[in-house]
């Protein structure tokens, strides 16, 4: 093919390097999915980034096939389709019923409806260069949206002065990937490939600059409190084995009401019992256990906010 022609050595170099770097970008979520498999739970992760990445890879594959002489563009997006399909399958396997339904709806909406509509609307009515141009600009629109998605993370970094959800390695590889595919599109004189990667390059540079600015900055108080611990008091009512969670304030109010309702010794004309020796002083934990039966404190951490990852190969 012309892509391997010796008259285009730099085109081949940029395409191969773009493939290699994009593979690292596609494999970036692997630690998260290994954790999902280990915990057998999606742990609050969202499937939207991976469904969008699959949709984007399928569009670029379609564009590469109708454009021709773009085997390196086909290869990386084929890899992306396979990897994203595996990610989505793992997500559906371990997701809750609600998250599974949402993922299926996304797949039906983006892949089953929108992609099919684009494919049918451009394959049959259009032909030749016009079809390539229309599909190419659709890919540009989707790529711009994909590259713009991490802007929310950028705003979060500026607001919290924390780079916890913006790892430097991912930003670095996204920037390198944008450079390689920009060079590939420029040498091939393909504006649809080169243009969105200009945005990807500037976004990656902004992310790395913010990382350099805030990597040693202590997170703000709001970020430190983002995972509060909620104390739930478990009360065993009476002699039953059932344990019911109640709020500490409600338990105290209930004890006060019970004490107020009980008649005093003078009202019942009952002689007060003889003073008994005081028991040994108990610690706070024992006092809590004596109040209304058995008392236990359980720390329930809130779900940790997870970063959103969207990748684009071209």
Automatic annotation (TrEMBL):
<feature type="transmembrane region" description="Helical">
    <location>
        <begin position="106"/>
        <end position="128"/>
    </location>
</feature>
<dbReference type="InterPro" id="IPR004316">
    <property type="entry name" value="SWEET_rpt"/>
</dbReference>
<feature type="transmembrane region" description="Helical">
    <location>
        <begin position="45"/>
        <end position="65"/>
    </location>
</feature>
<protein>
    <recommendedName>
        <fullName>Bidirectional sugar transporter SWEET</fullName>
    </recommendedName>
</protein>
<comment type="function">
    <text>Mediates both low-affinity uptake and efflux of sugar across the membrane.</text>
</comment>
<dbReference type="GO" id="GO:0005886">
    <property type="term" value="C:plasma membrane"/>
</dbReference>
<feature type="transmembrane region" description="Helical">
    <location>
        <begin position="134"/>
        <end position="158"/>
    </location>
</feature>
<dbReference type="GO" id="GO:0051119">
    <property type="term" value="F:sugar transmembrane transporter activity"/>
</dbReference>
<feature type="transmembrane region" description="Helical">
    <location>
        <begin position="193"/>
        <end position="214"/>
    </location>
</feature>
<comment type="similarity">
    <text>Belongs to the SWEET sugar transporter family.</text>
</comment>
<keyword id="KW-0762">Sugar transport</keyword>
<feature type="transmembrane region" description="Helical">
    <location>
        <begin position="165"/>
        <end position="187"/>
    </location>
</feature>
<dbReference type="Pfam" id="PF03083">
    <property type="entry name" value="MtN3_slv"/>
</dbReference>
<feature type="transmembrane region" description="Helical">
    <location>
        <begin position="71"/>
        <end position="94"/>
    </location>
</feature>
<keyword id="KW-0813">Transport</keyword>
<keyword id="KW-0472">Membrane</keyword>
<keyword id="KW-0812">Transmembrane</keyword>
<keyword id="KW-1003">Cell membrane</keyword>
<feature type="transmembrane region" description="Helical">
    <location>
        <begin position="12"/>
        <end position="33"/>
    </location>
</feature>
<dbReference type="InterPro" id="IPR047664">
    <property type="entry name" value="SWEET"/>
</dbReference>
<keyword id="KW-1133">Transmembrane helix</keyword>
<keyword id="KW-0677">Repeat</keyword>
């Amino acid at each position: 093919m012309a892509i391997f022609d010796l008259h285009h050595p730099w085109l081949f170099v940029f395409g191969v390097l773009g493939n290699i770097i994009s593979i690292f970008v596609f494999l970036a979520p692997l630690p998260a999915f290994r954790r999902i498999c280990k915990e057998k739970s999606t742990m609050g992760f969202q499937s939207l980034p991976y469904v969008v990445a699959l949709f984007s890879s399928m569009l670029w594959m379609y564009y590469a096939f109708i454009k021709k002489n773009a085997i390196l563009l086909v290869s990386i997006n084929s890899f992306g389709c396979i990897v994203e399909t595996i990610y989505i399958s793992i997500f559906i396997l371990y997701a809750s019923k609600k998250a599974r339904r949402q993922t299926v709806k996304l797949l039906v909406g983006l892949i089953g409806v929108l992609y099919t509509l684009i494919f049918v609307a451009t394959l049959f009515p259009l032909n030749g260069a016009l079809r390539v141009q229309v599909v190419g600009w659709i890919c540009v629109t989707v790529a711009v949206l994909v590259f713009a998605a991490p802007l929310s993370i950028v705003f979060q970094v500026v607001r919290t002065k924390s780079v916890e959800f913006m790892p430097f390695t991912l930003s670095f590889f996204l920037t390198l990937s944008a450079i390689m595919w920009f060079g590939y599109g420029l040498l091939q004189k393909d504006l649809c490939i080169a243009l969105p990667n200009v945005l990807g390059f500037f976004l990656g540079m902004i992310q790395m600059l913010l990382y350099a600015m805030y990597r040693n900055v202590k997170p703000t108080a709001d970020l430190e409190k983002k995972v509060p611990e909620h104390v739930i008091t478990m009360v065993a009512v009476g002699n039953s084995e059932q344990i019911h969670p109640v709020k500490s304030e409600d338990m105290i109010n209930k004890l006060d009401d019970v004490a107020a309702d009980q008649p005093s010794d003078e009202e019942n004309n009952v002689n007060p019992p003889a003073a008994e020796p005081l028991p040994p002083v108990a610690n706070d934990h024992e006092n809590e256990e004596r109040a209304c039966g058995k008392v236990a404190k359980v720390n329930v951490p809130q779900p940790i906010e997870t970063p959103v990852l969207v990748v684009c190969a071209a």
